[in-house]
Amino acid sequence: MAWDDGLTAYDFGPQHPMAPVRVELTMALSRDLGVLDAAGVGLLDVEPASDELLALVHDPAYIEAVKRAGRTMEPDDAHMLGTPDNPVFKNMHDASALISGASVAAARAVWSGECAHAANIAGGLHHAMRGNAWGFCVYNDPALAIAWLLEQGAKRIAYVDVDVHHGDGVQKAFYNDPRVLTISLHESPATLFPGTGQASETGGPDAEGYAVNVALPAGTGDTGWHRAFDAVVPPLLHEFQPEILVTQQGCDTHALDPLANLTLSVDGQRRAYTELHKLAQKTAGGRWLLFGGGGYGLVHVVPRAWTHLLGEAAGHPIHPDTETPQSWRDFVRRRTGELAPLYMTDGRDVSFEPFENGYDPGDPVDRAIHATRTAVFPSHGIDPSL
């Protein structure tokens, strides 16, 4: 795992929903439950990404603009710095470059064979564009990790994004590159930022079918979400056979998240991590590079969800009925003034009926599944029909 305490310096200020305490609480819960001390788990050295490395996905002029804004604290409208979503903060470049460097360190560890799985839980900043900040994201660390892997000679990389928001920055970076299959399951752009991610967005002329979008209706919960995931993601990954699976696990799909409208539980999110792990084993030779992402239920959602994620990646999954440690609850109270959740579960059953058992055109989730399969499956030689 790539970790440095400096990763919590990515901080837009006390009124911003992306508070670094969510990562701090995740690391504390993971430690208290023994995830970070499990056999085979180690911490990777982390260094800030250099300007040359960042330039794999960002314009040099934008990198300079980020540095300047972090020194002067002045907004830069041309680069979307100083907006309500992306306020300027002191040493913004340094904090952002460290997150990107951590993600590349994780990619390097997996690519070199140092480890089969590697995580940067502070990463997953999937909205940042080549020349501007966007959606709480300054530098696009998942895109940078993928670009670095391509530089090393990777020929097939799959990126699966389960954040509630469309993974627009990563999609755009590789929209016309058939070496990268991007799959995003997200709330419909009709009801949520960033307003992109329709099933019709399928890739550029040289990569038709290599951008995959499942736009789910507001209100979709565990059952519908997993029905959609199961109907789209495994068939594509089995056909594509990536050399490495890269995933972004934004946990803002939860019903308690204040910024979005899906209604998953921690149990549904936990199942998603289990399924992604299985797919890494079955389709990518076990090579799995994973990142955090969005998630604004700072106490009740993010720490539990991402501790489940880290436990899964470590090969020591945490049973849902596990009690949260009293030491962690005390820390939460001291750190935030809030009462911590008592268990690692929301008590939900996450069963679903597979889409292949029957398509219901009256169900908006099924319509979203059908639209995606129809748009991209033929490009991969897969029959989209039941």
Total helices: the number is 11
Rg, Å, rounded: 19 Å
Number of strands: 6
Under CATH, the homologous superfamily reads Histone deacetylase domain
* Text of the CATH class: Alpha Beta
Strand order of the largest sheet: 1-6-5-2-3-4
Number of domains: 1
Fraction in helix: 25-40%
CATH topology heading = Arginase, Chain A
Question: What composes the largest sheet?
Answer: 6 strands, parallel
Structural category: alpha/beta
- Large-scale geometry: globular
Span of the ends, CA to CA: 40 Å
Let me know the average pLDDT: 98
Protein name: Acetoin utilization protein AcuC
Pathway: Ketone degradation; acetoin degradation
Family: Belongs to the histone deacetylase family.
Keywords: Acetoin catabolism
Textual characterization of the structure:
Helix content is 37%, strand content 8%. It is α/β, with parallel strands linked by helices and 386 residues long. The chain has one domain (19-41, 116-380): Histone deacetylase domain (Arginase, Chain A). It has a six-stranded parallel β-sheet with strand order 1-6-5-2-3-4, with helices on both faces. Strand 2 (157-161), helix 6 (168-173) and strand 3 form a beta-alpha-beta unit. The longest helix has 21 residues, at 92-112. It is globular and about 55 Å long. It starts with 20 loop residues before the first helix and ends in a 10-residue tail after the last helix.
